Amino acid sequence: MNPYALFLGCTTPTQVIQYELSSRWVCSQLGIELVDTDDFVCCGINQINLSQEAGLLLAAMNLAHAERKGLDILTLCAACTGALAEAIEKLKDQETRDQVNGKLKTIGLEYTGSAQVKHISRVLYEDVGVDRIKSEVKRDLSRLQVAPHYGCHYLKPESAFEGFDDPDNPKTLHQLISATGAIPVQYETLSLCCGGKSFPISKEPAWSLIQKKLDNLMHKKIDALVVQCQTCYLMFADQQKVLNEQLGEQDHVPVLLFPQLLGLALGANPNNDLGLDMNGISLNLLLSKAGIKHTI
Amino acid sequence: MNQNKKSKEPIQVSHLDIKFRSEVTSHKEASTLNACFSCGTCTAGCPISEVFPEYSPKKLAKMVKLGMKHTVLSSRFIWYCTTCHNCEQHCPQNVKFFNILNVLKNMAAKEGYAPSPWVEQTQQIMKTGLIFPQNEESAEKRKALSLPALESNGAQAKKLIALTGIDKIKAGSPK
């Protein structure tokens, strides 16, 4: 397997550290070599709001740094994945590429188009494969029923992902969850967005979105919602707690990051290797249902 | 976009900017607006429109075509998009509304209507290269977990994006 430059993004390494911890653990367990670098900066996705050019330049700068190291990029955040993949698509246009390279030159960089970007789940799906994952499973998670949440930028814009998955009927995360032994549950609001990108501007519409999904999931009696993006995580876990406090609700839908679920299947220590104790909504019920003797 | 229920006066042609549409579509990213036939598939699939009907991609596209420049650019609703890309995923005319909206937001920002969160994040990138740089708490946590200290190439990012003038954009208050 080819090594990857690890693109941490801004939010994961400061606010959802358990995502980084569990991702590093599963990658090392499955032989995915991750290279750390000091050269990456913000992917630029939010800067597109003020200046599409500035957003594209930040993405291109990151891609150019990966190219210089001869590496493809592995992302954790769905939005970083989307921003970088969209930039690759835009930079196929020669006029756009020339304009961007004119500016990258001032910091001694050039974008040539050789670096690819893949989300960690895509690397697990394509480079490792579901069969190999199944063969590495050490714990039986077959009693767990979990709901997948893909994250919009993991799938869209479709043109930026070369037909990797079908945004209208996605399957890769379902298959990855099945590979861990857990049961992926079908539910009506599967494709509903977490609202994370509108949340800094206006909280209410985003809260309405997560409430809709959580209401749906409450009726499904699932053991956890499984996400693969730290922004989706913050919305469904941290903002769920905020909403429940406002409403005086006691019940919570536990939220797991996919590498945490995979790590449990691969035999990891829940806290030391996967940071389950850092998830704000308790996962003790899930662990006992899976027969894992461990208190978070 | 006006929430005032009483405001149902006819749209005054004299208040419209007929060049607005071509001003928007002259941007390469927004040229697909010319293919829009206002079917509303974008709004039908928009999660924000569903919970917050004041925000509507179809309505915004129509307002641009009519030339309602000031109303569109000063509106807070253009910033409500959650970037899910559903609008363009299902558009029968392959209109890239997400890109059109970004052109509108970029124009609005230049006119002084940029929401402060995006301006503050840009300032943070100019300082550190990241939106959320390492703080004392996260540095300690990372150290305790044996994770590498967080570094980024903030100086390069600053130099690069300053070339676009994004650092000159001031926060304003969309209506």
Give me the secondary-structure topology.
The complex is a heterodimer of chains A (296) and B (175).
Chain A: E1 4-7, H1 12-15, H2 17-30, E2 34-35, H3 52-68, E3 72-75, H4 78-90, H5 94-104, E4 117-119, H6 120-128, H7 130-136, E5 145-148, H8 152-155, H9 172-180, E6 183-184, H10 203-218, E7 224-227, H11 230-247, E8 255-257, H12 258-265, H13 284-289
Parallel strand pairs in A: 1-2, 1-3, 3-4, 5-6, 5-7, 7-8
Helix pairs in contact in A: 2-12, 3-4, 6-7, 6-9, 7-9, 10-11
Chain B: H1 20-25, H2 41-44, H3 47-51, H4 57-66, H5 69-74, H6 86-89, H7 97-110, H8 116-128, H9 136-144, H10 154-162
Helix pairs in contact in B: 8-10
List keywords for this structure.
heterodimer, A: 296 residues, 4-stranded parallel beta sheet, 13 helices, B: 175 residues, mainly alpha, Fumarate Reductase Iron-sulfur Protein, Chain B, domain 2, 10 helices
Task: Write a brief structural summary.
Helix content of chain A is 46%, strand content 9%. Chain A has helices at 12-15, 17-30, 52-68, 78-90, 94-104, 120-128, 130-136, 152-155, 172-180, 203-218, 230-247, 258-265, 284-289; strands spanning 4-7, 34-35, 72-75, 117-119, 145-148, 183-184, 224-227, 255-257.
Structural commentary:
The complex is a heterodimer of chains A (296) and B (175). Helix content of chain A is 46%, strand content 9%. Chain A has 296 residues and is of the alpha/beta class. Chain A has two domains: 4-119, Glutathione S-transferase Yfyf (Class Pi), Chain A, domain 2 (Up-down Bundle), CATH 1.20.1050.140; 136-289, 3-Layer(aba) Sandwich (Rossmann fold), CATH 3.40.50. Chain A has a four-stranded parallel β-sheet with strand order 2-1-3-4. A four-stranded parallel β-sheet of chain A has the order 6-5-7-8. The model of chain A has no long low-confidence stretch (mean pLDDT 96). Chain B is elongated. At the A-B interface, helix 1, helix 2, helix 3, helix 5 and helix 10 of A face helix 3, helix 6, helix 7, helix 8 and helix 9 of B.
